[in-house]
Amino acid sequence: MTGGNQPEFLLGLLERMIEIREFEDGVKFLFLEGAMPGTIHQCQGQEATAVGVCSALASDDFITSTFRGHGHALAKGLSVQEMLDELFGAASGCAGGKGGSMHMGNMDKGMVPAIAIVAGGIPLAAGMALSFKLENKPQIVACFFGDGAVAEGAFHEAVNMAALWNLPVIFVCENNLYGASTRIDQVMKNTRIADRAAAYGFEGETVDGNDVLAVHEATRRAAAQCRAGKGPYLLELLTYRRTGHSRRDPTHYQPKDEKQAWFARDPIDRFAAQLQADGLIDAEGVKRLRAEVTKRFEAAVEIAKHATQPTLADLETDVFAEKEVA
Amino acid sequence: MKRQGIAEALRDGIAEEMQRDQRVFCIGEDIGVPGGWGGAFTVTLGLDEKFPGRIINTPIAELGFFGIAVGAAMMGSRPIADVQYGDFLFLASDQIINNAAKLHYMSGGKVSVPLVMRAPVGATGRGSQHAQNMERFFTGVPGLKVIAPSNAYDAKGMLKAAVRDDNPVLMFEHKLLYGSKGARAEPGAVDATSDIPEEDFTVPLDKAAVLRAGKDVTVIAWLLMAHFSMQAATRLAGENIAAEIIDARSLSPLDWTTLAASAKKTGRVVIVEEGPKTGGVGAEIAAGLGERVPGLRIERVASPDIPVPFTPVLENAYRPDVARIATAARRLVAQTQPLRRDL
């Protein structure tokens, strides 16, 4: 089941998924409690897409993300601390408190700021890949977006050009069945999103997005194609959002039986069960792992709560970059 | 030194920057087709042969390829993206305004977008959707620099400065000023040629230019209107009115130092804008000068608040002309005393 992967690697995938779940649950509590400003869009239930994809990338490969980007950021290596600091609006946050929940990013870790306009990051990803190609760099781009983005013109324009120029970009569609509160079959006749690739002359496939190893393996194949100059690639990852579109959304539009069916396929529970079946960890070990992650998260929250806020002198800085010195 | 029009000067400027810096590339529609036009107004003609693989000819997809240009810029490339007509910038505006202009700020200064965008504007017999002046829609966007050169020297120098700048820069060019030749020549074109030095030069992106000094009234204009204002100044000089003509040139940020100094000197300002009066760049200039120069008298000469009409009879009435500029200046001088120096 877990193939030829090393135990440390597999346990790492589990830990990272638990970290994302813990982060999202903890952050939700902090928001509802009123401790944090702003709004949030969360990814509980979608941990395997973020972790499966990012674990198949090199550290200097890049990702683009969306308003629902906390999981992508953690999976690409951003620290819980720099993200919590950002959510608390602190100067030590990954965007100095100027970005917030919807614009997490860290260039040193291969993540440009998340783009919160639906599909707005898709042309960017193609352009990043074009830059890598023009400059003969080995890097590739993984571009996360949701099923809702597929109806946007930006998606179609960008994938067409990426295909035309064989750009090294993996288009990663997290199909969680809902764009905000609207179900996918209300907005498209052909709900098999991977089919879009063939229309533009490149390869696409649909993968169980709640199976972290399946996502990892599919991404590895797609990445190899991209690095061989045979990009782009479209991955449609079937998954489900266990929480509201944004805070305080009670998700009354998700039918009960649908919820139950997907909750039974929870990516973390499934992978933990797999690892237990393979004897890599026991139930006690999983419990211990969760407790360790919780402890680290709580410690980071305490630091973030007291992190220094930007001063008013920072209000008008960072509007323009200094002229290039060359 | 050689005499060049804007299209030729821009072509040379782009080629020189591509030669100087391997990271520079062009991306746009119909810019790299063998036997083609070199873009809608010949600016990139022949560059695809000189720089194979770096003149990227795109599908008709302004939103997509402007986003691609932004993404490439974020990774360290230095793209020059252009639209065939400025009107098409609306299609690309999500990428320009929400991404290119904001990414530096919303990343806390960690991302930069060294991107040049070029867009032809101006009423030129093409009706409502290929002829409007787009400056107004982009001058109020924080993080975006907007320039509008009126002659070949400025066009080349500002283009080079824009390529070397680490920020997104949107350059408006006027279709009647290109001096494009052959099949792409424009009827009614105005001579915007300059003497272009052989050596490398740049023109700053944040400085207005005083085209003609005068003490009685300041006329602020840009692109085609700068030329019309110079012609009006000649007429006014024959009536003993000394008009100071300023080419605003840098529309965002505006060069308040130069604009306000002239306004203080003359106490009277005529602002000339091709495009509807309401919500125009001229409105911003008027408000900014009003705040800086107490007692200043201002008059705006602009197009009526209508879409650009097609028929020449109506289009000529739409576009401010030399007579209207001169009339406004004359009226201001006749109606008002110069600004009191003791204020």
Keyphrases for this structure?
heterodimer; A: 326 residues; alpha/beta; Rossmann fold; B: 343 residues; 36% helix
Notes on the protein architecture:
The complex is a heterodimer of chains A (326) and B (343). With 326 residues, chain A is an alpha/beta fold. Chain A contains eleven helices and seven strands. Chain A has one domain: 3-Layer(aba) Sandwich (Rossmann fold), CATH 3.40.50. In chain A, the strands form two sheets. A five-stranded parallel beta sheet of chain A has the order 1-2-3-7-6, with helices on both faces. Chain A has a two-stranded antiparallel sheet with strand order 4-5. In chain A, helix 1 (7-32) runs antiparallel to helix 3, helix 1 packs antiparallel against helix 10 and helix 1 (7-32) packs across helix 11 (283-305). The radius of gyration of chain A is 19 Å and the shape is globular. The termini of chain A are far apart. The model of chain A has no long low-confidence stretch (mean pLDDT 96). Chain B has 343 residues and is an alpha/beta fold. Chain B is 36% helix and 20% strand. In chain B, the strands form three sheets. Chain B has a seven-stranded mixed beta sheet with strand order 3-2-4-5-7-6-12, with helices on both faces. In chain B, strands 9-11-10-13-14 form a five-stranded mixed beta sheet, sandwiched between helices. A two-stranded antiparallel ribbon of chain B has the order 1-8. In chain B, strand 2 (24-28), helix 2 and strand 3 form a beta-alpha-beta unit. The longest helix of chain B is centred in the N-terminal third of the chain and has 15 residues, at 6-20. Chain B is globular, with a radius of gyration of 20 Å. The N and C termini of chain B lie far apart (47 Å). The model of chain B has no long low-confidence stretch (mean pLDDT 96). Classes of the chains: A alpha/beta (326), B alpha/beta (343). Chains A and B meet through helix 5 and helix 6 of A and helix 3, helix 4 and helix 5 of B.
